[in-house]
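Project standup — Tuesday

K.O.: blocked on the structure for the chain from last sprint. Re-posting the sequence here as requested.
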Amino acid sequence: MIQETLKLLTGNSFFEILLIAVVLDTILGVLRAIKEHKFNSCVGIDGAIRKAAMLLSVGLLMLVDIIMHINVLFMIPDKYIQLLGIQKMGVCEFFCLLFVLYEAVSILKNMTLCGLPVPERVKNYIQKFLSDMTDELPEED
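H.V.: unblocked you, prediction finished:
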């Protein structure tokens, strides 16, 4: 069962995109910590635990998909189904999409804080979105 799960995960494009997002966010987070001279092992360990738990949960959700044959495609609008070009979306893929969106926000935040060029409209959206949840992004004058 575990070998089948690993085989399905390695061939799953949603999982591969999630892995890329996790690696990119981790690299940008480390670069940001170096830039700000705030390299904190506690924060790094918390982030690593969060990312490991995210990937482990996706693996366990793949097991659920294997056992239950769940298809949540009915929850996705048709235009996005056509855009993605998929016929089935299990719980694993659904959570991969959610986690990729979460990582994308973190990537954009880290890009902004590293001083990388981010389109002003996107930067303003991220600033507004995160202002309700965190005070990490500095207020602009």
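K.O.: great, moving the ticket to review. The radius of gyration is 17 Å. The mean pLDDT is 84.
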